[in-house]
Every structure is written in structure tokens, then in C-alpha cells.
Design brief:
This protein has 317 residues and is α/β, with parallel strands linked by helices. Helices cover 35% and strands 18% of the residues. The strands form four sheets. It has a five-stranded parallel β-sheet with strand order 4-3-5-6-7, with helices on both faces. Strands 8-11-12 form a three-stranded antiparallel β-sheet. The termini are far apart. Bound molecules: flavin mononucleotide (FMN) and iron/sulfur cluster (2 copies).
């Protein structure tokens, strides 16, 4: 089964090779090549993160770059004013992969930023499965940044525990639940160093989406289909402590705990509310089965997420 799937995948990729991009172009688009600066001083690491993996990797990159003498700002995309982007010499954008792509709220946000002409940009994603279409999600982020005249200097994907509650019991879940490990963090540190070296050397990264099978699946209305499977989604007023974490985590302002209400039309089925509620008060049923969130998953599996040693002393703004 695995072999057959790989064979089909490779065949599709070979077909896609017929449309490989020209050097200096990404997805057919010419990359702006004039670096604003080759000796960066101010770095912005901008993350969207629901269960904390992407921001953990972003923070570690910040620690590495700070250790190399750079001033680092680590920010959550949702509260960040895009007008401030042009004040930085290097921008790293991090996101999870959701539904085989960059989450819609991330791509919408990036599509609306002002021009960042000549600023080197890098992308990183955290993802939950080897076939999660992370490569194309990275290309998507770089493409959006290049459209705003940022200069791509690199991209990388880091695997973590899959945070998708409807598949807590899958084999993929088990294969990823020891992550991130030391090797993941080692690669994160390396990546930060490589990005800085690329900027100093004026090296532009080229990238190209692959026509993988997952890319075909991505064309389906996955969020819409998933929302059909969510048979109940509300707030249990008897458990809710009104901490508002779900509101803060919701990327589209769809959950209102004081009214015990979820706006199902707006909802992106990202499970951010369920995965972050400390009181088990977000109710979600998937195909009639009651789901539980990430804190409960960690508790039931007796998992502790490994933190990099740098976090004991490093402070990023
Ligand atoms: C709604 C949802 C959809 C997901 N879809 C994918 C996917 O298509 N491919 C993948 O590799 N991982 C997928 N994942 C797993 C996440 O990408 C992964 O757990 C990531 O590290 C979460 O990052 P965060 O902790 O920064 O939110 C999904 C998780 C959620 C909650
Ligand atoms: S996160 Fe949970 S406890 Fe906090 S406001 Fe939302 S539903 Fe209530
Ligand atoms: S209400 Fe929907 S969009 Fe908002 S956090 Fe919950 S699942 Fe995500």
C-alpha cells in the first residue's frame, strides 16, 4: 500500500517536473533581488501558533540570533501591526500546516501586508505528519512574502506532535508524539544560522511547489467538509471559568464564551478553542464522538513536551 502510494506520488512529481521554475523565479514569479541590508541588526520572528509548537521553534531561532548579537522581536501575528514590518532587517514567518496548507487566516494576513521591498524573508512551518504537504505550505508563505517584494532566503519544516483532535488515536499520532526531540531542536538552531549566513552572503532562495497527491487533496473544500463532520460545537457554561483563552486563540472571532456561542459560519475548524481551553469547557463532537483537547491528550498519554535548554536563560522580546 505504502509502495503503491509512493509510486503514484513520484509519478505525479515527475509530471510536475515539466513545469520546474526558471532560476531566480518562484512559482513563475521574478524575485526582487536587491537586499535592503546585508548585515541585519533587527530581526522579527512572526508566528501563528495554536498549540505552541511553531512559536517554540520561533523562540529558539530568536535565542540563536540573539546569541549572534541581533535584536530580536518575537511576535504573535494576530496582534501585530503590519505597518511595523518595514522597520526590520530580516523577517521570519512561522505557521503550522493546517489541512495540507498554510491556514487561511495566515495567508489572508500575509496577502494584506504592505510592501516589504528588499527585506530578506524566511518561512518555517511546524507540521504533524510526514505526508502533511509541508513543502507546499512553505512555498505558499514564501510566495506571499515575495509578492510583497521580500527576498526569500530560506524555508524549513519541523515536525511535532500532531495537534488534530479528531485523530488522537491514529498511527501517525503515535509516530509523532515524542517530538520535538533534540534532533528537531538541533535542526532549528542550524536553520537560524543558515538564514543569517544567507543574508550576509546575499543568497536568494528559489522554491517551487510540488504537485504531490496531497496537493490534489488540498483542492477539496477540506475545512467545509470537516465542519460537516463537527456535529456539535458549543461552550459548556457549567465548566467555563471565563478565562477567554478560546477567544484569544480563535483566529476569526467565532467563539463567544460569555454567550456560550460559536459562530459556525465563521469557524475555520482549527480546534484552537478546544485545544487551549484549560477547563474542558469547549464542547466539540466529531461524527457524533466527543472530542477532547490537547492538554487532556498530553495528560492521558502522560507526555511532557521537551523544551530546549536555551529557554532557561534566553529572553526574546
Ligand atoms: C486543524 C488542523 C489541521 C492540521 N492539518 C495538518 C496537515 O494538513 N498536515 C500536517 O502535517 N499537520 C497538520 N496538523 C498538525 C499541525 O500542523 C501540527 O501539530 C503543528 O505543529 C501545530 O502547530 P502549533 O502548535 O504551532 O499550532 C493539523 C492540525 C490541526 C489542528
Ligand atoms: S477557554 Fe474554556 S474556560 Fe476559558 S473562556 Fe473559553 S470556554 Fe471558558
Ligand atoms: S471557534 Fe472555530 S475557528 Fe475559532 S478557535 Fe474554535 S475551531 Fe478555531
Amino acid at each position: 500500500m505504502e509502495t503503491r502510494r509512493n509510486f503514484i506520488k513520484k509519478s505525479v512529481v515527475v509530471c510536475a517536473a515539466l513545469s520546474l521554475p526558471l532560476p531566480g523565479t518562484a512559482n513563475g514569479q521574478t524575485i526582487h533581488r536587491e537586499f535592503k541590508i546585508r548585515d541585519p541588526k533587527r530581526v522579527l520572528i512572526l508566528c501563528y501558533s495554536q498549540t505552541g509548537f511553531t512559536s517554540r521553534y520561533g523562540k529558539l531561532m530568536g535565542c540563536v540570533l540573539q546569541g549572534k548579537g541581533l535584536a530580536v522581536d518575537l511576535a504573535d501575528m494576530r496582534g501585530f501591526d503590519p505597518k511595523l514590518l518595514t522597520g526590520y532587517d530580516l523577517i521570519l514567518v512561522g505557521s503550522p500546516v493546517f489541512y495540507y496548507d498554510t491556514p487561511a487566516n495566515v495567508s489572508d494576513w500575509l496577502a494584506a501586508i504592505p510592501k516589504i521591498t528588499g527585506i530578506p524573508v524566511a518561512a518555517f512551518v511546524s507540521f504533524g505528519g510526514p505526508e502533511g504537504n509541508q513543502h507546499n505550505s512553505l512555498c505558499h508563505i514564501l510566495h506571499l512574502l515575495a509578492e510583497k517584494e521580500g527576498i526569500p532566503v530560506g524555508m524549513e519544516a519541523f515536525r511535532s506532535i500532531p495537534s488534530y483532535p479528531a485523530s488522537w488515536d491514529s498511527a501517525n499520532q503515535r509516530s509523532g508524539e515524542h517530538l520535538p526531540d533534540d534532533a528537531t531542536y538541533h535542526r532549528v538552531r542550524e536553520f537560524a544560522g543558515e538564514i543569517l549566513a544567507a543574508v550576509k552572503q546575499g543568497r536568494v532562495a528559489t522554491y517551487s511547489s510540488e504537485l504531490a497527491l496531497r496537493e490534489v487533496v488540498r483542492m477539496l473544500p477540506l475545512v467545509w467538509l470537516n465542519k460537516r463532520a463537527i456535529t456539535r460545537h458549543t461552550v459548556d457554561g457549567s465548566k467555563c471559568i471565563l478565562c477567554r483563552t478560546c477567544e484569544k486563540k480563535c483566529p476569526v472571532d467565532a467563539i463567544h464564551p460569555e454567550k456560550r456561542l460559536v459562530d459556525h459560519d465563521k469557524c475555520l475548524a482549527c480546534f484552537g478553542c478546544l485545544n487551549n481551553c484549560p477547563a474542558d469547557a469547549v464542547v466539540m463532537e466529531y461524527g457524533g464522538k466527543k472530542l477532547y483537547g490537547f492538554p487532556e491528550y498530553l495528560r492521558r498519554r502522560q507526555l511532557t513536551i521537551l523544551e530546549p535548554p536555551e529557554f532557561q536563560h534566553c529572553r526574546t522580546g
